[in-house]
From TrEMBL:
<dbReference type="GO" id="GO:0035925">
    <property type="term" value="F:mRNA 3'-UTR AU-rich region binding"/>
</dbReference>
<dbReference type="GO" id="GO:0000177">
    <property type="term" value="C:cytoplasmic exosome (RNase complex)"/>
</dbReference>
<dbReference type="GO" id="GO:0034473">
    <property type="term" value="P:U1 snRNA 3'-end processing"/>
</dbReference>
<dbReference type="GO" id="GO:0000467">
    <property type="term" value="P:exonucleolytic trimming to generate mature 3'-end of 5.8S rRNA from tricistronic rRNA transcript (SSU-rRNA, 5.8S rRNA, LSU-rRNA)"/>
</dbReference>
<keyword id="KW-0694">RNA-binding</keyword>
<dbReference type="GO" id="GO:0000176">
    <property type="term" value="C:nuclear exosome (RNase complex)"/>
</dbReference>
<comment type="similarity">
    <text>Belongs to the RNase PH family.</text>
</comment>
<feature type="domain" description="Exoribonuclease phosphorolytic">
    <location>
        <begin position="19"/>
        <end position="84"/>
    </location>
</feature>
<dbReference type="Pfam" id="PF03725">
    <property type="entry name" value="RNase_PH_C"/>
</dbReference>
<dbReference type="InterPro" id="IPR036345">
    <property type="entry name" value="ExoRNase_PH_dom2_sf"/>
</dbReference>
<dbReference type="GO" id="GO:0016075">
    <property type="term" value="P:rRNA catabolic process"/>
</dbReference>
<protein>
    <recommendedName>
        <fullName>Exoribonuclease phosphorolytic domain-containing protein</fullName>
    </recommendedName>
</protein>
<dbReference type="GO" id="GO:0034476">
    <property type="term" value="P:U5 snRNA 3'-end processing"/>
</dbReference>
<dbReference type="GO" id="GO:0071038">
    <property type="term" value="P:TRAMP-dependent tRNA surveillance pathway"/>
</dbReference>
<keyword id="KW-0539">Nucleus</keyword>
<dbReference type="GO" id="GO:0071035">
    <property type="term" value="P:nuclear polyadenylation-dependent rRNA catabolic process"/>
</dbReference>
<dbReference type="InterPro" id="IPR015847">
    <property type="entry name" value="ExoRNase_PH_dom2"/>
</dbReference>
Length: 103
């Protein structure tokens, strides 16, 4: 079998104005679990992944298969949790960057 050459051989840098941050929530009855472990994911049916950028704008919302969402408040709650997570991760990143030595 002959190997195909890539369509675009030129490398292009990806320019990001804001960093994306994602958070997966699992929904079970009236409970929302943010950032589940793989074991927790394996026993749940309804997943919702929210991606926000560093200015808290919604980039992506993904709900793969499973049962439908019973109410829109679950989506709103997951977005709120995602906003909190973005703040936490931004703080951690800023601390890590400020602690780095520059050559």
């Amino acid at each position: 079998m002959k190997e195909k050459e890539p369509v675009n051989k030129e490398k292009i840098k990806l320019k990001l104005n804001n960093l994306p941050f994602s958070l997966t929530c699992v929904l079970h009855k009236n409970y929302i679990l943010a950032d589940p472990t793989s074991e927790e994911e394996s026993i749940m049916e309804t997943f919702l992944t929210v991606v926000l950028d560093s200015s808290f704008q919604l980039v992506s919302l993904n709900k793969p298969g499973g049962p439908g969402l019973a109410h829109t408040s679950a989506i709103q709650d997951c977005i709120t949790l995602s906003r909190q997570r973005v703040k936490e991760v931004q703080k951690i990143l800023q601390e890590a960057i400020s602690d780095m030595e520059v050559d």
